[in-house]
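Q: For a teaching handout, I want to show students what a protein-ligand complex looks like in C-alpha cell form. Below are the inputs, and the small molecule is uridine-5'-diphosphate. Please produce the holo structure.
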Amino acid sequence: MIIPKYKRILLKLSGEALMGNSGYGIDPAVMDFLCDEIKSIKDLGVDVAIVVGGGNIFRGMNASTQGIDRSTGDYMGMLGTVINALAFQNSLEKKGMMTRLQTAIRMEQIAEPFIRRRAVRHLEKGRIVLFGAGTGNPYFTTDSAAALRAFEVSADILVMGKNGVDGVYDSDPKKNPDAKRFLSVNFKDILKQNLRVMDMTAITLCQENKLPIAVITLDKAGVLKKFINGEKIGTTVGEVETILSE
Ligand code: UDP
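A: Here is the structure, written as C-alpha cells, with uridine-5'-diphosphate included.
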C-alpha cells in the first residue's frame, strides 16, 4: 500500500471552479466530480480542510461598478463563499463523508464559528472541515484565508486546485503556445517575476511562514490522488530551486 506523502492538506478551490461552463453559480455535475476527487484522498486517510472562494457569486472588487462600496461588496463576497461551502458540505455528506463548516463571520444557525482548536479536533476525528466567509475581513481574499487556515491547522501543504490550468507558467499558456510550466518555483521568483499563483498578500504570508504550495489542476479525475501519493504533478512553490519544464 502506498503511504500518502501528505498527512494533512488545505485545499483551496476558487468559486469559479464550481460554476463549470454556466458562467455563474454552482454546477451540480462539477460539484459531484470535485466531491469524488476529495473522497478519493479522504479514503487514503488524509486530513482535508477546504477553503472555498466566492467568485462565482460575487466579487467585492466589482461592487463599485454597481454603486456598492468596497467594504459592503466584500462582505457580500464573503457571504457568497458561505453559500458555496454549504453546497459543498451537502454534496460531501451525500457521499458519506463527515464534515463541519466553520465561518469567520458568526452565523450559528448554519455553521460553527471558526475556533481553531475545534477545527483541529474535527480533522483528527476524520471530518472534513470547510472554512467559509474568508478571513472575515474586507480587503482580503480567500487565498489569504486559505494560507491563514493552513497555518492554523498545521497543514503540510496548501493545494491550490485550479481549473483550466495545470500549474504555474512563465507566461500565460492561453495566450502563448510556447509558455513553459515550472516544475518548482521559489517564492522569491514568484514575487520577482510577478507570477500568478495567488494574490501577493497570500503568497507573502506563505513565504514568511514557510508553507509550501502546490498548484494542480482539478479538471482531470485522479490528479489529486496522484499528487497526494507523491507523484510530481503541477507546480510546487516554496523554498525550492526554480526549475522550468523542458
Ligand atoms: N472576501 C473578502 N475577505 C476575505 C475573503 C473574501 O472580502 O477574507 C470577498 C472579496 O470581495 C472577494 C470575494 O469575497 O472578491 C470572493 O472571494 P475570492 O475572490 O477570494 O474568491 P475566488 O476568487 O477564490 O472565487
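A: Two things your students might notice: The mean pLDDT is 95. The chain has seven helices and ten strands.
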